[in-house]
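Hi there,

I know you've been waiting on this one. I reran it after we fixed the sequence typo, so this is the corrected version. Both the input and the resulting structure follow.
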Amino acid sequence: MPSEITLSDLTVSINDKTQETLADRVASKVEAKLKKDFGELFNDPISRKMYLTKKEACVYLSVSYATLQRLIAQGLPLISIESKILISKTSIDNFMKSIEK
């Protein structure tokens, strides 16, 4: 059974196979555009995490490990779970705002 799309006074009839092919092509184009525009966001594990290791925190802040250690000495809060040390991204953001000049 053909589908119909009406645009003003224009009506186009296409069969199911053509409709499926068209839908696949549109989906493929949309997916490619999303990957291009937002791929970094989805492929970056740090952007999806709430809590970071010290190494990830260095990447998040674009600082060296030594600089991160100085920030911790200045009061950047840490979370200690057994032997693992984590840092909340919210804490990092709040701390950086608090020392902003």
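Quick highlight: The chain has a mean pLDDT of 87.

Best,
R. S.
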